[in-house]
Amino acid sequence: MSTQDTSNGAGDQATNPINKAAENLQQTANKAKESIQQTASQVTDEAQRVADNLQQTAGKAKETVAQVSTDATRSAAEARRAMRESAYTVKETASNSLLSAAENIRREALKGGNEEVVNQAHQLARSMEKAALYLDSHTFEQISTDATEVVKANPWQSVGVVFLIGLILGMLFGGGGRD
Questions:
Q1: Does residue 163 contact residue 157 with C-beta atoms inside 8 Å?
Q2: Which helix (H) or strand (E) covers residue 133, if one does?
Q3: Which of 27, 53, 95, 149 could lock 135 by a disulfide, CB 3.0 to 4.6 Å apart?
Q4: Which one, of 45, 24, 27, 47, lies nearest residue 35 by Cα?
Q5: pLDDT tens-digit map of 130-153
Q6: 29-57 in b/e burial notation, b at 16+ Cβ within 10 A?
């Protein structure tokens, strides 16, 4: 029995380092597994933080774009309103100027006393008053429609009138004068 005891003792000693090595290997594997799980958890948490930040940034960008769009729409509406008001003010001023010019033409013609001049001045003044009334009673859309119809009906006369107006404006504003 004593040989058996010694052989068992040597076998136990040989298996003991193997068992210890296996235990150490198992512990190292467990630690590696825990480390990998912890790293995976950290990566997942960081990815979630990045996703949340991206979502917040996208939300803020969307809000900014919406605000800019709203501001641009509001500014465009205000500009249209201001331009419309300005255009109607110019139209009203033109109408008033026509009425004033008609009155002045009549007054000056009456000072001259010549019957033919008075009649022609009266006709011109009446035409100017009609134009003033037309401006007062029509919108820009109606005026545009009427002008389009006149140009379509009389294209060559319209070109001639535009040419004459251009010449008059050129002379008034000194266009084409060489020094």
A1: no
A2: helix 115-137
A3: 95
A4: 27
A5: 999 998 999 889 988 998 998 899
A6: eeeeeeeeeeeeeeeeeeeeeeeeeeeee
Q: Could you give the dihedral angle defined by the CA atoms of residues 135, 141, 147 and 153, in that order, rounded to the nearest 10 degrees?
A: -130
pLDDT over threshold 60, residue 5: no
Distance CA 161, CA 1 (A): 139
Specify the pLDDT at position 1: 44
76-127 pLDDT, tens per residue? 999 999 998 998 898 899 899 989 999 998 898 888 778 888 899 899 999 9
Distance of CA 89 to the CA centre of its chain: 27
Q: Which of 86, 142, 94, 98 is nearest to 124 (CA)?
A: 98
Residue that the structure tokens 């002008």 belong to: 147
Name the pTM for this structure.
Answer: 0.52
Count of C-beta atoms within a 10 Å radius of residue 129: 17
Q: Which amino acid is at 69?
A: S
Long-range CB contacts (within 8 A, 24+) of 76-84: none
